[in-house]
Amidohydrolase family protein (Streptodolium elevatio), 394 residues
Amino acid sequence: MGTPLFAISADSHVTEPGDCYLDRIDPAFRDRAPVAATDPRMGAVMDIDNGRSRIPYGMVAAAGRPPETVGPFEYTDWDQLHQGGWDPVARLAEQDRDGVAAEVVYPSVGMLLCNHPDADYKKACFDAYNLWMAEEFAGHAPDRLIGMGQTALRSVEEGVDDLARIKELGLRGVMMPGHAACEGEAGDYDDPRWDPLWRAAADLGLPLAFHILTSGNDQLGAQQYRGPKMNSFLGIMRGCQDVIGTMVFGGVFDREPRLKVVCVEADAGWMPHWMYRADHAVRYHGNWLGDRALGRLPSEYIRDHVYLTFQDDAVAFRVTDLMDHRRLMWANDHPHSDSTFPHSQQVLADHTAHLAEDVRDDILWRNCAELYGLSLPHRAPQTGESPARKDVPA
């Protein structure tokens, strides 16, 4: 392999430690806080809400393991997990091993907590997580560990306050629930009652991220998918697609043209066809399907407002000319089972070999650096150069 490619992962994860929630949660919820446990069949797990659900960490932290050893009932002990899932010092070493300069860091347990039915419990868990992420993990190396906060959205007003608090903590963006806790009262995300939240995000410079598996209808093995269980894997991107379509067709970006959103871990190779099909729908069926007057075509909103992260999606690199490549952001998804860790450099060398250097570098690091206002060089550093010479403007 040739010279390593400079890369930032736009979507990586922690495996929340056993005291992540317990030590910081609202005391009223301490007896229900997620806690670490050892299951006789699964090994290392996180117990949610006194056993309401149990998350196998062997599945969450399976990066680099042979596929035949990964499964919900494959016993995985704590010492088999990637220590960088909760230890920031170890995480920096894992970044070096994988050849990435920095990672935008999302939760793991927090992803599935988005689907918990108790809004107050979610709020308590997310507040505790945000403190842990800011104080114990991202705070250790904020230039390399780019922390994302969480909000339950029990109300529009509380969501606005949450965004301000997340910004104060030094976190760089917000992972949104696929469905707000108050959706029934405030409507879906296209409802104008949510406009103060979009305005607050734009004012604060916080990108809003919609991650797979946070919508309830995009779960692996979920019953609503037809046919064999494997078919459910192909549907995990649908939750993100539905959110993006809701915001695009709902005129959200007309009402707040500064808003930036990120479609996370749902791949990107499908987006050119989605854009084409969305424009087709407006042109040919807008007279009976369209219930909002849009200022532009759907594809134009995508090009200006929607970023997409992907890891092992060679197709995305092949269709860069069919969308705005400046909205694509590569990720390693470490330490999840879909991760390219510890072989990211080999994957990237193969997937990007046909690209012009400027397009490649935009996707591998520059787009992410600009979106989150990271202090990184305008071009990838050469051998012997410092990795931080001049800030990229936000």
In short: The chain has a mean pLDDT of 92. Residues 8-33+87-372 form a domain with the TIM Barrel fold (CATH 3.20.20.140). The chain has one domain: 8-33+87-372. The chain is about 35% helix and 15% strand.
